[in-house]
Design a protein that fits this description.
By secondary structure, this protein is α/β, with parallel strands linked by helices. It is about 25% helix and about 25% strand. It has helices at about 5-10, 20-40, 45-55, 215-225, 260-275, 305-320, 325-330, 385-395, 420, 445-460; strands at about 60, 75-80, 85-90, 100-105, 110-120, 125-130, 145-150, 155-160, 170-175, 200-205, 235-240, 245-250, 255-260, 285-290, 335-340, 340-345, 365-370, 400-405, 425-430, 435, 445. This is M18 family aminopeptidase.
Length: about 475
């Protein structure tokens, strides 16, 4: 059988060329909503709060309010305010498998230390410890907000936010002027800024007291606003994040620029896909987890038992029975998209990618068969059978998609939560939006890719 060239060779054209005008309007509308989500979800706690609002508008309720579950029930499990497990119960027996889309909602940032406040050179500053893989020099001379929670001595919880509202003060880490930076500029990039130098400037006006004048002035302001004392920082989680808002990028507004798109771009698209599911055959679930950027450890990370606990609740309340064997059977029959970003090819830095296997902006979500680094270390490496299933459902639903690796062999690599789902005997593959400037305070995504990522998840959960 003779085939045409278009049938024989891979079609690698830009996705925008395939969209009709009405579809482009859908893209822009969806991404307008996404930008609003980004701007209200700069921390994992805020992301959970916003996700619950979206879920409840779609008919989801807290699973603790349900003694039993039946097909069509929509429930969520809130894991300590920093993780979320949503499920729409399908008509098939739950042990036939769950279609999972799992994303993480933590992002690189600066965390305040337990004893952050000090003064030096007639200034008050906060000590920080950076969270996740960052280029430390990118976090200097940039407006920062402070967002988090504080628990006072009496156990009262205080929500803490400064820098997000119009008229709020903001904060920053200072940088060294080029006139005095000759020695600094001779250092390697990773040594330009030391971790202990990522200190936030928070004040420079003294209080009228004998000692600790600048610390005291700051604590008086914080006590007046939040009722907290310096000791309360020990029982606080406060994150320093970029103060600017996510926005349209480019004269054609074809991209989104903003903080935290790794991985809230996949979290939002996965959330929307599952919230919009109706009468599924298999139970579908969106799981949003914390701590991925530091290895998925902790009781809100993917490595904790919380994921299994949420699944166990679904099994128990749908079947009226539970056993370890039922859980293992459910996982073995389940399918999962590890919803995480990949790196888009950057023409400013072409040498780090192998062009045939790089992701490109505007070509749809990136299906990543394996991640890891140097010999595929730390990856689950999706099998060909499952890749075929996923390829088929994306093509059948006219999803524009691509494949890609995270950089050249022996240069690139990275980890996702796919390996942890695979360790539970779940079929899993990575699929997510490609980004420019990943892990920088300002990341870039194509609006077409964002929308098609959402379409890919909607298609996948119908399997």
């Amino acid at each position: 059988m003779n085939r045409t060239m278009s049938e024989l060779l891979r079609d690698n054209k830009n996705g925008w060329e395939s969209l009709k005008e009405a579809e482009k309007q859908d893209v822009f509308q969806f991404c307008g909503d996404y930008i609003q989500f980004l701007n209200s979800s700069k921390t994992e706690r805020l992301a959970v709060q916003e996700a619950i609002k979206i879920a409840e508008r779609s008919g989801f309720c807290d699973i603790s309010t349900k003694e039993s579950l039946k097909p069509g029930d929509k429930v969520y499990f809130n894991n300590r305010g920093k993780g979320l497990y949503l499920a729409n119960i399908g008509s098939e027996d739950i042990t036939s498998g769950i279609n999972f889309v799992v994303a993480h909602i933590d992002s690189p940032r600066l965390d305040l230390k337990a004893n952050p406040l000090y003064e030096d050179a007639d200034m008050a500053l906060f000590k920080t410890h950076y969270y996740g893989g960052i280029k430390k020099y990118q976090w200097t001379a940039m407006p920062m907000s402070l967002i988090g929670v504080v628990y006072k001595k009496d156990g009262t919880k205080v929500d803490f936010t400064i820098g997000e509202e119009a008229g709020d003060p903001i904060f920053c880490v200072s940088d060294l002027l080029p006139h005095l930076a000759s020695k600094q500029m001779q250092k390697k990039g990773g040594e330009l800024i030391e971790g202990e130098c990522l200190n936030l400037i928070i004040g420079s006006m003294p209080d009228d007291c004998e000692k600790d004048k600048f610390k005291t002035a700051v604590m008086k302001l914080l006590n007046e606003k939040y009722g907290i004392t310096e000791d309360d920082f020990v029982t606080a989680e406060i994150e320093a994040v970029p103060a600017f808002k996510a926005c349209d990028l480019g004269l054609d507004r074809s991209m989104v620029g903003g903080y935290g798109q790794d991985d809230r771009v996949c979290a939002y698209t996965a959330l929307r896909a599952v919230c919009e599911s109706e009468n599924p055959k298999k139970t579908v679930a969106c799981v949003l987890v914390d701590k991925e950027e530091i290895g998925s450890m902790g009781n809100t990370g993917m490595l904790s038992a919380a994921f299994e606990y949420g699944t166990a609740q679904l099994i128990s309340k749908t079947k009226g029975d539970y056993s370890e064997l039922l859980k293992l059977e459910t996982f073995r029959n389940s399918k999962c998209m590890s919803a995480d970003v990949n790196a888009a090819f950057d023409p400013n830095y072409p040498d780090v990618n192998e062009k045939n296997n790089a992701a490109y902006l505007g070509h749809g979500p990136t299906l990543t068969k394996f991640t890891g680094s140097r010999g595929k270390s730390g990856t689950s490496d999706a099998n060909a059978e499952f890749m075929s299933v996923v390829r088929g459902v994306l093509d059948q639903n006219n999803v524009i998609w691509q494949t890609g690796e995270l950089g050249r062999v022996d240069i690139g690599g990275g980890g996702t939560i796919a390996q942890f789902a695979a360790n539970l005997d779940i079929e899993v593959v990575d699929c997510g939006t490609a980004l420019l400037s990943m892990h920088a305070p300002f990341e870039i995504a194509s609006k077409l890719d964002i929308y098609m990522t959402y379409r890919a998840y909607k298609a996948f959960i119908t399997l």
